[in-house]
Fold these 2 entries.
Entry 1:
Amino acid sequence: MRSGGQQGTTPLLRKNDLLLAGALVLLSLGMLFLSAVRAGNRQEETWIRILRDGEEIGVWPLSADAVFTVPASADREVVEGRIAGGLSDVNTVVIENGTCRVSEADCPDRICVERGRISVSGETIVCLPHRLVIEVIGAERAGVDDVSN
Amino acid sequence: MFQTDGETASRGTAGTGRSVAWGGLLLTFALALAYVESCIPFFFGVPGMKLGLPNLAVVLLLFRRNDGGKNGRARAVRDAAMVNILRIVLAGFLFGSLFGILFSLAGAFFSLAVMVWLMHTGRFGVTGVSIAGGVAHNAAQLAVAVFLVKTSGILYYAPFLLLAGTLTGALIGLTAGAVLVRIPVEKQEEEK
């Protein structure tokens, strides 16, 4: 496109746009399919693993009901944008009836609470402000220390 | 702020005033959209997932001046980048958190870079550029998230974010296109 050309504006939709959209949709569907296959392969007992700042806090069986409060470490208030009451950064994790959820959290966005229940291997709950990851893992990964990293 | 080159500003051309006016108008527009977005619970518990409505303002700015001439395009990119920074900082303080601002900036800038690059190739329409921008935004945010929590486990969200970015990007591109055909293309007044 050069100045004065008849092509004043970029066209709204080109064939390339459709190809791009199609490729992206196929790619995401393929990834979904792969993760579904991987989750379906392990039907054995599943565990809940909680990581804070990339470090494993602990692993709990999904079959045993439990409630516990996970504190975000206290030295990160400034980064998280929390000034007042920063010491109270906590997420309450509930394991019940073979599912896991975050019932309460005082992070700014509460996306972890909105996420709802997880139960299938590979599913995760993330609380970015608290750098907390709660994931469902299969039995073979529960024993080994973080294969994925 | 928008297009503040010493010489053109002092000459006081019509282009300068219009550029400032457009920047302000679209910044306000982006903030209004950010407010609307904050009212719509779309994310389904996936961190970083948003409709990306304010990106409509950025796409509009990017393509509005695309009537040729390197000068006009460079200015379009600069205006888009400026509105991008301002709308994120302002919307962050108004409706979000400081944490959200830092997080959004990463996504927005990678997204803008990809959109500018695709626009310059001239092989894609507004919709394609917008789709790439939406996907790039989500990819960058997910990358930052992986870095923050130091766990690759959250890549579990990648397909959802990819799909969402494609969808919202397409919607925004089509909307932007519908608006763009109704805005007269601005001619270059001053070509040095």
Note: The domain at 6-180 of chain B is CATH 1.10.1760.20 (Arp2/3 complex 21 kDa subunit ARPC3).
Entry 2:
Amino acid sequence: MVKMYGVTRVYAGGAQALRGVNLSIDKGEFVFVVGPSGAGKSTLLSMIYRGTVPTNGQVWVAGRNVVRLRWREVPLLRRRIGIVFQDFKLLPDRSVYDNVAFALEVIEASPREIAKRVPLALDMVGLSHKAQAMPDELAGGEQQRVAIARAIVNDPFIVIADEPTGNLDPDTSMDIMNLLCDINMRGTTVIMATHNQLVVDRLRRRVVQLDEGIVVRDELRGGYCGEA
Amino acid sequence: MSGMSCEVDTAVKLRTMAALGGQALRSLRKTPALTSIMVVMACMAAVSIFAVFAVNLTAIGRQLQSQVQIRVFLDQNTVPDDKEALGNSIRALPGVIKVEYVSQDEALDRLKLQMGESGFFLNDLERNPLPDSFNVSLARAEDARAVAAGIWKLTGVSDVIYGQKWVDNLVGALRVLWGLTGIVACLALVGASLIVSNTIRLSVFARRKEIEIMKLVGATDGFILFPFVMEGLVIGIAGSAAATALVAAGYLGLVTWVKSVASFIPIIRDPIHMRFAVIGTVAFGAIAGLAGSAVSVRRYLKV
């Protein structure tokens, strides 16, 4: 599903975010990417949806070398990937329903398709009853649920979550994690960068640990800190 | 990832275009579009005024040019057959539309008529001093020099006169005026494009979060750009249409005034003759709007 070969990313100014990363993630896996701030977690995730391109190396997603995608092909890649961020990235002037529908509107889905898919996505995240609420009327966990609904409404094969519990309390974080696990159970690959030791230790999924841009640990059922 | 092999259809669907058009109009309310429309209007009004001026002077110039004539004086001893042959030769020259023979008696009569009472001495002449002549009308005043040179080469011609300097000055003045109109138009285009560009930049900035999300969920460049291009186009067209309306109203007032006070001034009174100025100004506004938004979107959106 996702393969990286010798991926290095050097930013302007010489800072090295990733150094020769090799990684292979299969379809249906749930992978935590952990490591201290500045370890390269977000850069690694953005390589998958081509938010960043490597300075060296190759990134393959679903059999395509995304580094070599033409610019016009990038939107099509992103339509198959759901992305969730720590800061939710919701549009404050649109309702919950419209925020989720937005992901379908911009890919020019038909109104019928939108009317069918949005309620399903909201039902999946348990927010059907708040479809007409505005984002600022929701709690942090609910806002993240809306972001997840937007990420899955297009039925993606990968969900990328960059610190999705970073702004949430422990209980709400576990709710979000349960939701991501449900999505994973349906066959969607989930790749999540996190600092949240509690969720990593509790879920015991594959853990890829980065330190200064290098993969220092890749453990199948790991904890946040590894087998110390 | 089926379908990745084919590119995203960058053409925006009609239904989507309508939705995005609405979005562009909503965006106009959020950005200082009215200010931009006013500035575009000022730029385009300058273009319109110059265009109206140039169209009028060109019309006057054409009218004056149509009155430009070459007078060809004949040798006194030219026989009638030769005169006819000479007339035919002149008629055959390129640019000549009419050749009128004026005998020396007719020329004297015309002179008497022209001079009126002050030409009393003409009645006492023992002999008519005026030569036979041809009055040659031209299609275009610019051809006067070449036609005159051609006539000089013909036999039986004693002199050729035309208002050479006057004709050259007129042609030159019209060229300068149109050149000036072109320069003003270019400056206005650049000015209007810059202001539109600035407005679109603000619009892009105001919607940067939305744009970021659009990119992340797989919107095409065309989808993201369309509302901004529409916004620029609307500003350009609205500004230039307002300028056209303003200048047209002023011009109609001027026409009415000229008609009542100085009707001898050959101002274009039929608005249909000004249609090129109107269409040109609005088209210019549209180009400025498109160019402005394209520059801004390319520079600040980087999609």
Note: The first strand of chain A starts at residue 2 and ends at 10.
